[in-house]
Amino acid sequence: MNVIYLAAGQSKRMGCKKLTLPVNGEALGMKALRTIITIPSAYVFIVVNKQDTLEWISADIKERLLKGRGEIVIAEDSDKGQSYSLRAGIRQAMEHRASSVMICLADQPFITTDLLRHISSAQIKGEQKYVACIHNGEIKPPVVLSSSLFQQVLLLTGDMGAKKILQKKDVKGTELPITDEALFIDIDTIEEYKRFCVKKEGRDKR
Predict the structure, then answer these.
(1) What pLDDT does residue 39 have?
(2) Under DSSP, is residue 156 helix (H, G, I), strand (E, B) or coil?
(3) Among candidates 90, 105, 92, 104, which has minimal Cα distance to 147?
(4) Across residues 52-56, what is the average pLDDT?
(5) DSSP 8-state symbol, 78
(6) What local confidence, expressed as pLDDT, does residue 199 receive?
(7) Of 96, 142, 187, 191, whose CB is crowded by the most CB atoms within 10 A?
(8) C-alpha to C-alpha distance for 25 and 112, rounded to whole angstroms
């Protein structure tokens, strides 16, 4: 299972580098990454910006990467929008001749191994080109893209993500209804970070 882990955001709405914020003794950016790494078949392309010192990645995960569980991908133009980070990950996946990739967000800490296995177990076959979660009628990450969509991803610009492609009428795929809203919460603001800490640690961050 090839995974593109998008962790190159600028944290503009947060006002500080959100991936390094502490949660239960570990950086926020580690939460989803550790969940992904627990799946033995996962190979992770961790896409970061060129200023990232990687201090948010724990020593044990860095060791796993060195032992063949993934690699760091630098998105040179990540400040221009999410498409540049996604394109960097896709290009590296293409170097590895990946037949598909799962796209996950570093600021979506509530994803579970059960969710990831559920998505990855849905086969892409025939005319289908993706597998996506659907919550309240909207496509949500994580999503799995077939390699047949990679060239379209490389044409994305600005802050566009893969959803722009999946919404096209001629792009067919499997959509998995998911009712648990917590799985799709992402952390973009300090208020959301505080609510996340209340839920996970039973106290407010002030």
Answers:
(1) 93
(2) coil
(3) 90
(4) 93
(5) G
(6) 57
(7) 187
(8) 19
Question: By C-alpha distance, which of 195, 176, 172 is closest to 185?
Answer: 195
For residues 6 and 105, the answer to whether their CB atoms sit within 8 Å is yes
166 contact partners, CB below 8 Å, separation of at least 6: 130, 132, 139, 143, 173
Give the amino acid at 31: K
Contacts of 64 (CB under 8 A, 6+ apart): 37, 70
Cα radius of gyration rounded to whole Å, the chain: 16
Task: Identify the pLDDT of residue 206.
Answer: 43
Question: What is the average pLDDT value for the chain, to the nearest integer?
Answer: 88
Q: How far apart are CA 162 and CA 133, in angstroms?
A: 13
Q: Given this model, what pLDDT does residue 131 score?
A: 94
Length of the chain measured in residues: 206
Give dist(CA 15, CA 5) in Å, integer: 22
Give helix then strand counts, H and E, for the chain: 7, 9
Specify whether the CB–CB gap between 36 and 3 falls below 8 A.
yes
Model confidence band, residue 197 (pLDDT cutoffs 50, 70, 90): low
Q: pLDDT tens digit string along 23-36?
A: 878 898 999 999 99
